[in-house]
Amino acid sequence: MAETPQKTPMRTPAHGRGRLRVGGTNKGGTGRPPNTFRDRMASITDAEEFDVELRRTATDSSHRQYMSAVQFVAERAYGASAQSVDVNVKGQLKIVVVRE
Question: What is the pTM of this model?
């Protein structure tokens, strides 16, 4: 049988409303969760069948998912394209365009 955790003492916070537990540990309570979903998706995209199907779809312009496949491949190969931004500015706005 597992031990019942000891309750830590309570205190009233500075704002005077409610009660908070003080002391104790937070073992396993917070922090970044494991990348389970990300790992699962990576295993799908690493599969040989995925590569074959993606290549077939991205090279068949009559396939209904052709544009999505091409966009997927292009973003992984060259990075996502620049996104437009709406800016509402009062006064003066200086825009600098840099070409590489």
Answer: 0.46
